[in-house]
Amino acid sequence: MDGATLSSLTIHEARSLLDGRTVSSVELTKAVLGRIEEVEDRVKAYVSVNKDLAIEQAEQADKRIAKGNAAPLTGIPMQLKDNMATRGVATTCSSRMLENYIPPYDATVTQRLYEQSAVLVGKGNLDEFAMGSSTENSAFFPTRNPWDLDRVPGGSSGGPAAAVAASECFYSLGSDTGGSIRQPASLCGVVGLKPTYGLVSRYGLVAFASSLDQIGPITKDVTDCALVMNAIAGYDPRDSTSLKVEIPDYTKSLGQDLSGLRIGVPTEYFVEGMEPGVESATRKSIEILGSLGAEIVETSLPHTSYALAVYYILAPSECSANLARYDGVKYGFSDREAETMWGALEQTRGRGFGPEVKRRIMLGTYALSAGYYDAFYLKAQRVRTIIRREFEQAFEDVDAIVSATSPTVAFELGAKTSDPVQMYLSDVLTLPANIAGIPGISVPAGMSEGLPVGLQILGRALGEHTIFRIAHALEQATDWHTRRPSL
Ligand code: GLN
């Protein structure tokens, strides 16, 4: 098998080659590094690639495989979004502020993957501090959509989604605060899961909005997604929001039909401005779910239209508090030229943060300030409770809720950069799940104008097994997930 073919495999395909000793992890890793060499100057999905480390880790993995105690991810080359701590490897958040920051520790997810002897190829590009929907807010360079290099890959996990779609890694981890795993997965034609809030530890994830942030897998298919979830989910005492729950084997949810399941279609999720091609692919996929045995029912989530407003109070408020730590003293970039302490603080933050991050900090600081707190933050919290209850009620009647993941396919670079509200609208269908803390997956579900469309499947809190069941059934009935961009 040549390098290009090797790198295009799924995790489970590569696993059987590794276990059958047809290929070694070193060969697999070299194939991925070769692929990166071939396409990365066009895609720009990586902030950094660590060849020597990857080969060294692959050699270790090969030793483990030789001993016969390989785990499901042993020896498989992967990428991590560059907001997850990797000991000895720069973790930049695609920000000038952390450009030279080398963490002295691993995030829990990094550690869990290392425990399986996974191979870290490099770190994925993102919108600075995960704020954005196109990866154009990266302080370094925008990532491009492998399906059309003039278009964005989505964001903020645009690097991870593009890298997986372009076969520059077997899988990646993203973070999702308002849609940052699902929306880029949808725009790049790959699978992305935002787990239930608290299911995957965020220890070592650079905080954006702590009541919304969650880490999850970005993969080529649903089986791979279940395999990565098996590795990263589970209680962690170092994350105070981590749930103490039993983790099922998610691969057990695969390969079942959908009989007995009720799937809700919320009328409010066919939003104004949705592209016709996205709407028709969504309706077609819902029909397929019906033909696979699920009962399709209409459901209503009338407060959906408030989700965006709630999110853009809560997320900036939390970010303004979380990002206060970047003062030039404790972490990262420090402007040493100013003469006074306040001057140094101002210069450090003025030069270290990009425009979108500053906009969010200002919005959040305003919403939290005395006199405005009740009018904005407190009110948003109340609406958050209403949205959460509305989902709970809906899930008394249905097992899952489906919609398009994004109202549009990938848009052109620069198309929305001058209009933040247009950019924010990219996430209208994904951010309710973060507000409610429930899980959601995006799976390839069609093409429109030659670009991928994703279907979003939302489940009850800790209902990942149901989401996997539906996602896998849809995948098996279609071939969208097998299509790869020609680069
Ligand atoms: N696009 C949304 C934002 O800009 C969500 C980002 C995310 O999920 N990290 O905030």
Please describe what this structure looks like.
This protein has 487 residues and is α/β, with parallel strands linked by helices. It has a domain at 3-261 and 462-482: Amidase signature (AS) enzymes. Helix content is 39%, strand content 13%. It has 16 helices and eleven strands. Strands 1-3-2-4-6-5-10-11-9-7-8 form an eleven-stranded mixed β-sheet, sandwiched between helices. Strand 2, helix 5 (108-115) and strand 3 form a beta-alpha-beta unit. Helix 10 crosses helix 13 (374-397). The radius of gyration is 21 Å and the shape is globular. It binds glutamine. The site of glutamine (GLN) has 13 residues, from loops. Glutamine (GLN) binds at residues 130-133, 156, 176-180, 208, 315, 427.
Query: What's the CATH class label of the domain at 3-261 and 462-482?
Result: Alpha Beta
Low-confidence stretches: none
Radius of gyration: 21 Å
Total count of helical runs of at least 4 residues: 16
Helix content: 25-40%
Structural class of the secondary structure composition? alpha/beta
Question: What's the count of strands?
Answer: 11
Overall geometry comes to globular
Task: Give the amount of beta strand, in percent.
Answer: 5-15%
Oligomer: single chain
> What would the CATH topology of the domain at 3-261 and 462-482 be?
Amidase signature (AS) enzymes
Largest sheet at a glance? 11 strands, mixed
**Overall pLDDT, averaged?**
97
Q: Give, in order, the helices and strands.
A: HHHEHEHEHEHEEHEHEHHHHEHHEEH
CATH architecture of the domain at 3-261 and 462-482: Alpha-Beta Complex
The strand line-up of the biggest sheet is 1-3-2-4-6-5-10-11-9-7-8
Q: Could you give the distance between the termini?
A: 19 Å
Q: Which hetero compounds are present in the coordinates?
A: glutamine
CATH homologous superfamily label of the domain at 3-261 and 462-482: Amidase signature (AS) domain
